[in-house]
Amino acid sequence: MKQFLSFFLIVIMILSTAQAQVIEPVEYYELGSGIVAYDAYVLCDSLTLRAEPDVNSSSLRTLSYGQKLQVSMRQGEWYQVYLNESRKGWVRYEYILVNPAIYVTEKETPAYAYGSRYAPRVALLSAGERLPIIHSTAAYYVVSLRGASAWIEKPEAQQTEEFSLSKLQNVVLAQLCYTQPDTGTTLYIGEINDSGKLREMISLLSDADDMGAPISGCPFGRALLTLTYSDGSSDLLDLATDSCCIFRINGRDYSYARSLWTPEGGLTNSVLFSLFDGFPQELIR
Does residue 273 sit in helix, strand or coil? Predict the structure, then answer.
């Protein structure tokens, strides 16, 4: 059971700075009667606790966003959870974040819709707020906030030079995170460090036109691509998740893969996403 649930652990070292502290999760602990459990948090506004792992099972109560639980086991698409040692039930797995690291603000901190200072600000967090971390990139934490996800710049993130297409030639690692915006659920995390696949990705992204400004109508804020360069710096690209080949960075949109055309005459971004092993193509509409 520990080995199964370890897939969901986010292993982040404790970090104390002038802006925040990130608290590493406890691996596991024991409830009464020798039950091994992990801390977990509710990610949606309301979640039904059921008597059995079945949607037709009787409802025991409704759990609210951010409520802390203890997870003991998974059965199919359900987690068995404990409210205390004597009260337990079952909840759907996709609405629970298991054993996350916790981001604790130490002063007012802006949270963004995606990983860029140019992104819309979704909140200004007060000092002392505790937020479960869904994912971490080179420069940002993705946290669960009010039933959705938000991006918080890491205190140690350094300012990097202005983005240019020529920088892409120095990419040594690409990490893709796809998050469901309404629930904050991470649906995919993957990376490319193979030199051959990196060359393919760089070729696609470099074959681009700078559109000069954001383009309306494309869905952003779901697929975030972190590019790490040979000098240790990084950039975060927001990939459109429709059929368009558009990425957004620092408030500018780029139309990439200009040489790729479908038989119908339209560009497709499926080639880029397919470079990431196991990426669910149905997420691209």
Answer: helix
For 40-99, what is each residue's pLDDT tens digit? 999 888 899 999 999 999 999 999 988 889 998 889 999 999 987 778 999 999 889 898
Q: Is 6 helix (H, G, I), strand (E, B) or coil?
A: helix
Rounded Cα–Cα distance for residues 210 and 164 (Å) = 10
Give how far Cα 277 sits from Cα of 157, 227, 232, Å.
Answer: 28, 17, 24
Selection from 50, 76, 48, 136 nearest residue 100 by Cα: 136
pTM of the model: 0.56
Identify which of 211, 131, 138, 230 has the alpha carbon closest to the alpha carbon of residue 177. Answer: 138
CA angle 60, 74, 48 (to 5 degrees): 25
Question: Low-confidence residues of the chain, pLDDT below 50?
Answer: 1-18, 160
